[in-house]
Design goal:
By secondary structure, this protein is an alpha+beta fold. It has a domain at 6-82 and 123-137. It contains six helices and four strands; from the N terminus they run αααββαββαα. The protein has helices at 6-10, 13-42, 62-65, 90-96, 123-130, 134-138, and strands at residues 67-72, 77-82, 98-106, 109-117. The protein has a two-stranded antiparallel ribbon with strand order 1-2. A two-stranded antiparallel sheet has the order 3-4. Helix 2 packs across helix 5. The longest helix has 30 residues, at 13-42. 15% of the residues are buried.
């Protein structure tokens, strides 16, 4: 009696899985890079606060400079957003609104106050702008032997 494993006749399973994994990492990283670039470009250098509902203005450049992306192997996804704000909740408050502590100078002294901040989203609109392009990046992405 002859026993055939039909799957073995069509393709090398390990090679295909490796090609799919490599393509997935490449495409997800590329998508993360596009979203990061769009978010960074939406934050313009201007004086004064941005109008609510629009991306925040950059006064010193730290928010733009600290937006990164990275591929996370554990969740098989890409994470895009600001990092490096140790004790500050400013990026989160700008994106979603809320209250935060603000230091101001009064009569030569620094005073900490609570301030209510309206939403000034920059990451959500960047994802929305790049979302139509993401499926096209998968076209022809899997190559192999």
């Amino acid at each position: 009696m002859i026993d055939f494993k039909i799957k073995d006749l069509f393709f090398d399973r390990a090679t295909v899985l490796r090609a799919v994994g490599n393509a997935k990492r490449r495409v997800l990283s590329q998508g993360g890079a596009f979203i990061r670039t769009t978010a960074k470009h939406s934050i313009r250098k201007r004086k004064g606060p941005a109008p609510p509902g629009k991306p925040p203005h950059s006064h010193e450049g730290s928010l733009r400079r600290l937006i990164f992306f990275g591929y996370d192997r554990a969740s098989d996804s890409v994470v895009v957003g600001p990092v490096g704000f140790r004790k500050s909740t400013a990026p989160n408050v700008l994106e979603f609104g809320g209250s935060t502590k603000v230091k101001t100078r009064r009569r030569g002294r620094f005073v900490t106050q609570r301030a209510r901040v309206e939403t000034r989203p920059y990451m959500g609109p960047a994802l929305a702008k790049e979302r139509p392009k993401l499926p096209r990046m998968w076209a022809g992405s899997i190559r192999g032997g």
